[in-house]
Amino acid sequence: MKKRIGLLYGGKSAEHEVSLSTAQAVTKALNFDKYEVYPVYITQEGEWRKGASLEGPAGSIEQLQLGQGNSAPNDISGFLPAEQENGLDVIIPLLHGPNGEDGTVQGLLEVMNLPYVGNGVLASSAGMDKVVMKQLFKIAGLNQTPYVYFIRRDWKNRQSELVRKIASELQWPVFVKPANLGSSVGINKAENEDELIAAVNEALKFDRKIVVEQGVNAREIEIGVLGNDSPECSVAGEIKPLKAFYDYQAKYKDGNTAMIIPAELTDTVYAELVESAKKAFKVLDCSGLVRADFFVTADNEILINEVNTLPGFTPYSMFPLLWENTGVAYPELIEKLIDLATERYEDKQLLQVKMD
Q1: Those residues with Cβ within 8 angstroms of residue 174's Cβ, 6 or more apart along the chain or in another chain
Q2: Number of folded domains in the chain?
Q3: What angle is formed at CA 168 by the lines to CA 180 and CA 201, rounded to 5 degrees?
Q4: In 30-151, which ranges are continuous DSSP H helix?
Q5: Which of 156, 186, 214 is the last residue of a domain?
């Protein structure tokens, strides 16, 4: 029998468009001889719509964005375990950013006892919050750049004090980021106090918590991690933005970025990257997939920047390209992730839930 796969995409997030591109790419790559594929679209307003089974790789995901399909309250059976009518065997969450990549949807799927691809609740939420992530990295002994963080209320009440703190503790330039967004949304570089204030005000449009990181003169190196309890790493790749930094526009709009795969690294540096990537994967209790992002300085000092628990996943995104250059083609990568989801689900079913 074919497995019934639910593609969960869209989402109430600033990264909605990225999710649509990912869903279209995954749909084209899935093996329709092995899977029945059901699109589950979440509008940018948060409405859930489940469509009929797609007929093949050319099946239209876009039609659900035109108001067709049923909303979740009338169609919850579509998310229940497979033995029930119209149930789904595995969910593939393709939601980037808040309300999808941050553990919220993962918690829903856990409560519904459904297998799903990717990271669980803890890894997703900790991986989304850059401040919590950095604090866990510190506990694990991972080297990283200096940073300062604060919430909207602090900025409103103590702006001058925070500006002085950042100027004294960090060196210019700094990068200002919403703590809970990916895809470089809301990130800006600041060379002085005036630019810092403008950048913080911009970032506060996207999140109530802000992290300000010291800039570093280094290469941007990324590595893919795949697995559950015994993760494996891909070759490393290097990002070379053709502008100030690798922002949303460079990633998804204007193509002002060069990706060098594999990155030119010594065996020693690559081995250290692999060790650090696996350590980050384990300290966050990750499962399925992660893209670990690093800075490598001219003297080969390694600094971890962040991990992305649901990295860009079109065939032209860094994570799939890293694995393609490691010998795992895009369709095979999706199948591996489905198998890893099933493996993790079956492992959880071994837990005792009744007291003797």
Answers
A1: 166, 189, 190, 196, 212, 213, 214, 215
A2: 3
A3: 35
A4: 104-111, 121-128, 130-140
A5: 214
User: Residue 282 belongs to what H/E stretch?
Assistant: helix 267-283
Q: Point out the domain boundary residue: 162, 197, 214.
A: 214
> Closest by alpha carbon to 347, among 122, 127, 119, 115?
115
Q: What is the C-alpha to C-alpha distance for residues 107 and 314, in angstroms, rounded to an integer?
A: 25
Residue in 92, 95, 91 with CA at minimum distance from that of residue 19: 95
Which strand (E) or helix (H) includes residue 306?
strand 302-308
Q: Which percentage of the chain shows pLDDT scores above 70? A: 87
Tell me, yes or no, whether 99 and 31 share the same domain: yes
Provide mean pLDDT across the span 256-260: 84
Is residue 89 within 8 Å of residue 4, measured between CB atoms?
Answer: yes
For residue 146, which of 76, 212, 202 has the smallest C-alpha distance?
212
Residues 190-247: tens digit of each pLDDT: 999 999 999 999 999 999 999 999 999 999 999 999 999 999 999 999 999 776 554 5
* Per-residue CA distances from 349 to 33, 105, 186, 341, 345 (Å): 28, 20, 40, 13, 6
Contact 233, 209 (CB under 8 A): no
Residues 67 and 18 in one domain: yes
Whole-number Å distance between alpha carbons of 46 and 235: 37
Question: DSSP state, 102?
Answer: S
Whether residue 51 is found in the same domain as residue 86: yes
Instruction: Classify residue 134: in a domain, yes or no.
Output: no
Helices 130-140 + 267-283 axis angle, to 10: 110
Q: Are 232 and 183 in the same domain?
A: no
